[in-house]
Amino acid sequence: MSSPRSAVPTAAAVPSPSAPVTGGSATSPTAPTVAELMDFVRSTARDEALIASLPLDPEGRTWIRLDGPGGSEAWLIGWPPGTGTGWHDHADSFGAFTTAAGALKEHSLAVRLPTDGWKTLELTDGVDRSRELATGQGRAFGQNHVHEVLNESEVAHAVSVHAYYPPLPRIRRFSRTGAVLRLEQTERPEDWQ
């Protein structure tokens, strides 16, 4: 995440059952599954009072941190018209997100990137994916999922709910020029909390 224009330090808990993760780097026996994260973001996106509590800023994204299931990290995010994340991944975390209001577009790469030790990669043809996520639509993703999320509307805010497990240890930010993906920066939790 990039720095918000405004943020409200509020928490909301939405109960969800937990079950062990069957793969990945999670070590907790109560870690949520990807399906549980998806259930959480969908049910939270239907909470009209919570969605309405998010302050929306016309100049930049806003967010509220939420309590996710099984110790996961969750966020309610407001997207002004024309804003986006830029290319990034969530390192060793898997997750899910759902659009709660408006519409978002996700561009992603169908490729597994090396975890560390590189600065520039040349992507092969056919790795680009795009999807529209209207209100109520979402997606789950695995570790090291590289994507960018955009609100392409020129007039309407969008709102989304995101959950990650394990809680985000880092976010890697990338730039892209044609087929060349370049690692630009690695952010740690203290950079966005």
| Head-to-tail CA distance between termini | 9 Å
Percent in strands: 35-45%
Question: How helix-rich are the residues, as a percent range?
Answer: under 10%
CATH A-level architecture: Sandwich
CATH class: Mainly Beta
SSE sequence, one letter per element = EHHEEEEEEEEEEEE
For the sheet with most strands, the description reads: 6 strands, mixed
- Name the strands of the widest sheet in spatial order: 1-2-3-11-5-9
Principal-axes geometry comes out as: globular
Question: Which structural category do the helix and sheet elements fall into?
Answer: mainly beta
CATH fold label: Jelly Rolls
Count of β-strands: 13
Tally of discrete structural domains: 1
Overall radius of gyration = 16 Å
Annotation field: number of helices = 2
Q: What is the CATH homologous superfamily assignment?
A: Jelly Rolls
Q: Show unreliable segments.
A: 1-27
Average pLDDT works out at 85
In words, what does this structure look like?
By secondary structure, the chain is mainly beta. The chain has a single domain (about 5-190), classed as Sandwich (Jelly Rolls). The chain has 2 helices and 13 strands. The protein has helices spanning about 35-45, 50-55; strands at about 5, 60-65, 75-80, 85-90, 95-100, 105-110, 120, 130-135, 140, 145-150, 160-165, 170-175, 180-185. The strands form 3 sheets. Strands 1-2-3-11-5-9 form a 6-stranded mixed β-sheet, with helices on one face. Strands 4-12-13-7 form a 4-stranded antiparallel β-sheet, with no helix packed on it. A hairpin with a 2-residue loop joins strand 12 and strand 13 (about 180-185). The radius of gyration is 16 Å and the shape is globular. Mean pLDDT is about 85; it is low at about 1-25.
